[in-house]
């Protein structure tokens, strides 16, 4: 009988994995500056001396700011989910709120020809790679259904 | 303000991919720079090395490694690392010692032996390293970032793949007669466009290679230069001075997606600074030197990709934002063009990148240009040169040399 491996985030504390997944940034309790990835070293604002940051769920939708694709397999520690390697699309997405751009792969199967600057996308969670113990998950961008 | 540091000598190996120890390249470049300066190694007060992170412990202590190879002479030693800006930081360290009166003669050297293919992070499971994470989580190689920036130019300013290819065509022409260039063949626009796409919209020939190579400069105080009577009259060689070295960090919030960042800073609470990071690198150099873009005759900029060279035209103020395509289309930045000549050496397109050596190599080329020694690629009458580069983790640099 096949054993189902547990699915775990490839990096702890950066995103949720429910049906409406979100990236988890940090927000400075003093000045309100948001950052992603979440900060452990305090506020990134040089005019703020606070070291007190709280978890902050980022907007889960945005628009493609720019994009490219990886025609050749990146070197380790990248692990290709397929053999032979299949190119993937990378998108830098300007979030609908929070004032920042976040890089991510487009969902599996996306091709660069279908992507354009301004394309509305939403955050989804997909498998990144499989180890002996677990399936590791990562965030990706998917065109929003009504786009 | 104390007197500027003088560039007494320059030296540089040919760039290639030979896989020899980096210290062999470094000592060759150092000896050439010392000979060019007419300075004995024994007389050097301070040696500064640009660190290479891919060659083990000897690379982490590159200044000392080269000093040992030349024979320890009791000089002060330092090794600095700042990604692609390492060489400029090494120059800045030496220059500061000279301007502070702590050293008379300084040898600055950078050398690298690079692996084949994509530059990759150090080995091992290192999930606390942002450089490791961008590869593991996203497969985001350096060319992927270059692809993102290039696509942005197409969206904002109507750049085309053909505009990017024209940068390669120009630089390949510039490098044909450069004896130190690794690629010395003219490349046609069609060849660039026919080369495989690596990170769309960029083709293989839009993206620079990684190379082995070394560059060195000998810096000295104005006093020392005068004592040695190194003047135009006595040697036929104009004195070249370092008028500025800028190694500024980005200012918060940085809205550029720099390597190896997964996200930009947020502008929701604090508005963006008046200048982008790359703009601020050049701005700080111009302020230090007390000159402006209109004074520049020749520029060596980091064409990690062809499209990035176009960004630099604007970051250096050689044209207004959005006009870089016009410059390349009408050949303004080529030798003989009506703007500042950009990458007369052939740039990274003809050299490939040897990280800790590259910013020093840029300065070597500017010095040859200002001396009038750049045979076959000389910008006529060049008096002011500027270099510019950007690397990982908020590093960038710009050096201004004048005669």
List the helices and strands and how they pair.
The complex is a heterodimer of chains A (147) and B (403).
Chain A: E1 7-9, E2 24-28, E3 34-35, E4 53-57, E5 61-70, E6 88-95, E7 101-106, E8 120-130, E9 135-143
Parallel strand pairs in A: 1-9, 7-9
Antiparallel strand pairs in A: 2-3, 2-4, 5-6, 5-8, 6-7, 8-9
Chain B: E1 5-12, H1 22-37, E2 46-50, H2 56-60, H3 62-70, E3 76-80, H4 86-99, E4 105-112, H5 130-138, H6 142-157, H7 161-175, H8 189-194, E5 197-199, E6 202-203, E7 213-220, H9 222-227, H10 232-235, E8 240-246, H11 277-289, E9 298-301, H12 306-315, H13 324-329, E10 341-342, H14 347-351, H15 355-371, E11 384-391, E12 395-402
Parallel strand pairs in B: 2-3, 2-4, 9-10, 9-11
Antiparallel strand pairs in B: 1-7, 1-8, 4-7, 5-6, 8-12, 11-12
Helix pairs in contact in B: 1-3, 4-15, 7-12
Overall description:
The complex is a heterodimer of chains A (147) and B (403). Chain A is mostly beta strands and 147 residues long. Chain A has no helices and 9 strands. By secondary structure, chain B is α/β, with parallel strands linked by helices. Chain B contains 15 helices and 12 strands. Chain B has a 10-stranded mixed beta sheet with strand order 3-2-4-7-1-8-12-11-9-10, sandwiched between helices. In chain B, strand 11 and strand 12 form a beta hairpin. In chain B, helix 1 packs across helix 3, helix 4 packs across helix 15 and helix 7 packs across helix 12. Chain B starts with a strand and ends with a strand. The interface between A and B is large, with 43 and 47 residues.
């Amino acid at each position: 009988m096949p054993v189902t491996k547990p699915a775990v985030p490839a990096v702890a504390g950066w995103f949720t994995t429910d049906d409406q997944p979100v990236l988890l940034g940090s927000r400075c309790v003093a000045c309100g500056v948001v950052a992603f990835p979440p900060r452990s070293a305090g506020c990134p604002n040089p005019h703020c001396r606070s070291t007190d940051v709280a978890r902050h769920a980022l907007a889960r939708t945005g628009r493609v700011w720019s994009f490219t694709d990886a025609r050749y397999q990146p070197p380790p520690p990248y692990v290709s989910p397929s053999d032979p390697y299949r190119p993937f699309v990378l998108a830098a997405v300007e979030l609908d709120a929070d004032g920042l751009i976040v890089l991510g792969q487009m969902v599996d199967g996306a091709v660069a020809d279908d992507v354009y600057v301004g394309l509305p996308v939403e955050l989804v969670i997909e498998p990144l790679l499989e180890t002996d113990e677990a399936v590791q998950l990562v965030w990706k961008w998917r065109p929003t259904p009504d786009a | 303000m104390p007197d500027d540091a003088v560039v007494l000598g320059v030296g540089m190996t040919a760039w290639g991919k030979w896989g020899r120890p980096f210290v062999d390249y470094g000592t060759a470049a150092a000896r050439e720079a010392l000979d060019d300066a007419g300075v004995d190694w024994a007389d050097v007060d301070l040696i500064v090395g640009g660190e290479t992170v891919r060659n083990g412990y000897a690379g982490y202590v590159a200044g000392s490694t080269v000093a040992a190879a030349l024979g320890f002479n009791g000089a002060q030693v330092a090794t600095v690392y700042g990604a692609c800006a390492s060489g400029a930081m090494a120059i800045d360290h030496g220059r500061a010692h000279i301007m502070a009166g702590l050293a008379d003669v300084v040898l600055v050297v950078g050398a690298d032996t690079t692996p084949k293919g994509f530059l990759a992070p150090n080995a091992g499971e290192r999930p606390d390293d942002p450089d490791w994470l961008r590869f593991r989580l996203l497969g985001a190689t350096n060319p992927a970032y270059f692809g993102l920036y290039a696509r942005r130019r197409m969206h904002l300013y109507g750049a085309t793949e053909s505009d990017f290819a024209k940068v390669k065509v120009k630089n390949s022409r510039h490098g044909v007669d450069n004896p130190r260039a690794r690629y010395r063949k003219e490349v046609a626009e069609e060849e660039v466009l026919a080369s495989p796409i690596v990170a769309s919209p960029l083709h293989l020939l839009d993206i620079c290679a990684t190379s082995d190579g070394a560059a060195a400069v000998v810096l000295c105080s104005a006093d020392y230069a005068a004592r040695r009577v190194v003047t135009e009259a006595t040697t036929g060689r104009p004195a070249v001075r370092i008028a500025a070295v800028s190694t500024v960090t980005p200012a918060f919030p940085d809205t550029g997606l720099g390597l190896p960042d997964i996200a930009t800073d947020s502008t929701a609470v604090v508005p963006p600074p008046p200048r982008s990071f790359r703009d601020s690198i050049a701005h700080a150099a111009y302020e230090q030197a007390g000159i402006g873009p209109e004074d520049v005759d020749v520029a060596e900029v980091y064409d990690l990709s062809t499209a990035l060279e176009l960004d630099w035209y604007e970051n250096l103020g050689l044209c207004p934002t959005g006009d870089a395509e016009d410059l390349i289309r009408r050949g303004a930045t080529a030798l003989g063009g009506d703007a500042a000549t950009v990458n007369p050496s052939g740039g990274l397109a003809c050299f490939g990148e040897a990280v800790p050596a590259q910013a020093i190599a840029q300065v070597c080329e500017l010095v040859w240009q200002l001396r009038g020694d750049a045979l076959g690629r000389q910008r006529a009458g060049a008096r002011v040169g500027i270099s510019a580069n950007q690397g990982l983790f908020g590093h960038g640099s710009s050096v201004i040399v004048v005669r």
